[in-house]
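Job type: complex structure
Entries:
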Amino acid sequence: MSGLPIVGFVGLSAALLAVGIFGILTRRNFILLLIAIEIAMNAGILNFVYFAAYTGGTAGLTGQAIAVVLVGFAATEVAVGLAIVLALNRLRGSINVAEATELRR
Amino acid sequence: MILEELAFLALAVVALATALLALLVRELVHTILWIAVFFVDLSAIYFLLEAPFLGVLQLGVYAGAVTVLLLFGIMVTRKRIFSREATTGIGAVPLALALVTFIFVIASVGEFSAGATVHAYDPTYLSQNLFNVNGPWLLLLGLIMLGAVGGAIYLVREGRE
Amino acid sequence: MDVASFAGPFLPEILLLAGTLLVFLLDVVRVRRNEVVGAVTVLGMALALLFVLADLGFAPIAGLATISSGGIDTVPSGTPLYAVTSLGLVFQAIFLLAGLLVALASLSRPSRERGAPIFFGLLSLATLGMLLVAIASDLIFLLLSIEITSIATYLLVAYTRRDARSMEAAMKMYIIGALSTTLSFFGASLLYGAYGTTNLYAIRAVAGTGGYPVLVLLGYGFLIVGLAFKATLVPFHAWAVDVYDGAPTDVTAFLAGGSKKVGLFAFFLVFLGPVLLARTAPSGGPFTNGAVALGPVLQVTLSVLAVVTMTVGNVLALLQKEMKRMLAYSSISQAGYMLIGVAIGTAPALAGATLQMFAHVFMKGAAFLLVAGVAAWGVGPLIEDWRGLGTRRPLTAVAFALMLLSLAGVPLTIGFVSKFVLFSAAVQAQGYFVWLAVAGLLNSALSVFYYARVLKVIFFEAPAPRSEPLGVVAGASEPEVLPAGGFGYGRATAIALAVIVIVAVGVYPQPVLGAIQAAAQQFVSLGP
């Protein structure tokens, strides 16, 4: 079909992963952390999709199937994260990760 | 051909910009807006990659459900939903780590042949793959969701304590 | 046995799933007593263990086997998502024993314990995920199974939802866990891009001929980092101590004794193939185009990780003042010993690492369960708070001493046998692996210091004086009185079981060791 250069996709997913890791390491609000994790996760999913598209055949379909499963998994993960946030917020009144210091000494 | 390349370039730039903006803006509600644009943008990329089923899934699950879930999370945990986050520093070490990751992954670019083309798929075959050959993946996903639902309901349920 | 043969290799998993669903159902109809839901879980796990042992060919119950003998240890044709190996079955038994110990001990919590249904339901589900990891033959199947365990354990840590400390531990574990998952899946996507498949046996077969050396190295690199978080290897260990410290102690026992071994077994599945290639074709390396030799690079990386993990874990354990944190760091250092097995990649080394993990369930898992029981008596979290336990509760103190001695690797305990097998395998493997054995021995010597310090506090220091300074004059030097009563039947049974295994296998290791060695031999010969 089309002749999109694969180089562009590799670059995009690498950049998204880097942004996600950067976000996970620097952000302190739990919701922002969730978003950073999702960005990095999307980099992985994008990887599966473009490798599938360039592989073709049965092996390519497998890649798309993995991507479908991963989208569902990532949504589940966000839901669990939010449940933890809500429970913590009820205890603390804050969802700032840096304020959670009871275990540090 | 050149049209598609231009489209991809534009979409890639938007994806990167919205991802960064989502993490860097100080108002959390704006973050949600940017991340919604990011998800929609990725779904457009999937359409470009001849993966329409995944594009629709991305729109429904990510741009729809996950975005609303995150917005909901912000609304419940803040007294005033438009209040601002305190700025957090950027930090040299995280930036370096992110850059190193980027450079490592980008180093694999040289291994791909430039002439590779995108293959189109019939979604029928995708469903066969998903429900027949690789059916157990969906079962595992179901087990993950079982644990998540059970635990999450317990965590947020208001008990008489 | 028609139903059993229909379920085939999945009978244990189905039993655990039934246990989870039944417990959740009981919760809905408001049957929430700790003993009732606990008994359901224990029953499910015990039955599952029975069938796993039968499949392993354990003589007295071999008639119950649900897998025909041809179904075990054969390289699967095509690209199926799961394959039963004897080593996988051994690990299923290990995981089930870990779950069973924790479930047994938790039976003796107060019967009005809040969240008992969710605790036991998630415990079953987490164990179910671990069983699936043990039979995975596909990278995505493996990672998704690990996620079943991970998601269940995040929520297990949080099950005391009114306790700020454990909620905080759950939050930390969630963030790190999600990060590690993301990195693992990214690595898997790169391997998929390079090989066009995610089947581990297919990857094993072609690992030497791939044309994407950088992509493959990156893929394995991301997988190492992602799985190292799960297996608490240094430098990806920092979360583990806080989480082990903050989580409810019974859950900590499950995390340290059970779920972290999932990460280590994943190392077996993912990295053994390339490591074996390095062993069978030492010259030139697996990549014919000569860019980089994958196997040797992985071996060196894993060896360095192993040595760093045991050393840092042991040194930091020396500095701890709290019992749970000391045990947590010691647990990290033990992961280092286990990693040696994968780095070497010979059958004896794998057997040693497997035995080490088997032993660790009974040493560390039971030790945490004992700490939880002692804490329920009102003994504080510091090591010093345990002063004089040897005179006040001699049986408990002796059981704890046996566990610590076994962790240190004193002869006639299971810890000695596993370390002996592992280190002699390292020496046999020649080359720089001999230094792994040396590092392991030095670390064992180092670990003796902090275990001995705890034993000294327990047995040779006078009990703490009464906390009320204004007590009756005559009773001023009397020790603080511990409440009457022991651990309760469940916890006592679990600890007694662990002590029996520690001593029995330590004195007469042959049956267990023989089975594990045979399984490891089969597992290695499945390779390319």
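Summary: Helices of chain A lie at 6-26, 30-55, 57-92. Chain A has three helices and no strands.
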